[in-house]
Amino acid sequence: xxxxxxxxxxxxxxxxxxxxxxxxxxxxxxxxxxxxxxxxxxxxxxxxxxxxxxxxxxxxxxxxxxxxxxxxxxxxxxxxxxxxxxxxxxxxxxxxxxxxxxxxxxxxxxxxxxxxxxxxxxxxxxxxxxxxxxxxxxxxxxxxxxxxxxxxxxxxxxxxxxxxxxxxxxxxxxxxxxxxxxxxxxxxxxxxxxxxxxxxxxxxxxxxxxxxxxxxxxxxxxxxxxxxxxxxxxxxxxxxxxxxxxxxxxxxxxxxxxxxxxxxxxxxxxxxxxxxxxxxxxxxxxxxxxxxxxxxxxxxxxxxxxxxx
Length: 309
Fold this sequence. Notes:
The protein is of the alpha+beta class. The protein has 10 helices and 14 strands.
């Protein structure tokens, strides 16, 4: 019964998660339809490629690391145990999405390990599928390229959060994110490539933050994130995670994979702050990051008084 291998393939393809398998040389030998749906990569794009080649990076709360430094599949083949982790999947369009992976060894009839399999699914704790729908339903405009809040709506949301702070004093920070070398990028690759880069960076930024945070577009092709319940230490941690996550993203453009990095300037709310003073401090911090050569984070050392943890 069920001797036809196509039956098992069909069963795997119908699962709501992505499934793939590798041989002992870590080359992909099977890629399910669920894996295609979640990642955007078709089976013929990845079959025969080395496992995780620019596809997945391991991620803990503060420190993403490239595959090779840590790999659940390799560990599973080495000791025959099951492993799981939160990682960042590189979507076919270049941005990163958080997924939860589970790895297990594959054995033959002699119980010899001949490879490994891994299933992955979008991590709801990091990125609920209704984030953009929630933003749309809350009113305001959306940016057509990134699907994020447009500049006017982002400023309105910031005004609302600052007003709330005057009443409840729960700390938050803002991060202004700028794509490094965008003018040079435009001169070499053109305006449409800039829009593609904005889409990748904006989408990755949204996925790297919590569902309760607010992410939108800002002046000068920048992005602004409002990170709630965040003090100075937390702001630095979040900003560094965002910076490193963005550095693993790529813009696919006419067959080339163009790397992008970002500079980040941030500031934690102070009791006396208005919207403009908060923004000005973050912009000054961003300028410092850019002057240091980009791909770095600057957060002023703020001591917050009268806030609640």
